[in-house]
Design goal:
Length: 164
């Protein structure tokens, strides 16, 4: 969780690790401390980085790259041909993926609607339901400026891909 606090995913952190049968899960450990992890799901010849995280005190030491390289080696043994990863606007994350051979393949907007006014613009209420906040996807990236003006939190979500 510490690795995500400074990222745009700070509010989208799972408190329990999902099952990842058939995937690749690697953990970097120093002594008794976990300093990094990578979880990759596999679907036939394609894989997705579900999580990659490095403890904030250990960033820029090559731990994330070593975890990625370890995962890629295991994926290659399984004849996986392509890997992708999704990230938001964190320049460090976007730069890291690009510098490791990933190229952006698609993007969309993550839009957060909070409060009665924002929710009424984004969601049609069902009788008896009271909205608190909503997490929405906007595929029309051309409406980014409009969404940023209407909602307090909007992020560009990017998919990066590369060959294994």
């Amino acid at each position: 969780m510490l690795a995500f606090l400074r990222s745009h995913y700070y509010d989208d952190v799972l408190i329990e690790k999902p099952r990842n049968e058939g995937g690749v899960d690697l953990v970097a450990v120093e002594g008794d401390d976990v300093v990094g992890l990578i979880d990759v799901s596999v679907d036939g010849p394609a894989a997705t980085i579900e999580s990659i995280a490095v403890h904030p005190d250990r960033c820029r030491e090559g731990i994330g790259t070593a975890l990625l390289e370890g995962a890629l080696a295991r994926l290659g043994e399984r004849r996986v041909r392509k890997i992708d990863a999704w990230t938001r606007e964190d320049e460090a994350a976007n730069g890291w993926y690009r510098s490791r051979g990933f190229a952006e393949s698609e993007r969309y907007l993550h839009v957060y609607a909070r409060g009665k006014e924002q929710l009424s613009r984004a969601v049609t209420a069902e009788a008896g339901l009271v909205g608190v906040h909503a997490f929405l996807h906007m595929v029309d990236i051309g409406r980014e400026d409009e969404m940023r003006e209407a909602f307090g939190r909007v992020y560009v979500c990017r998919c990066y891909e590369r060959a294994v």
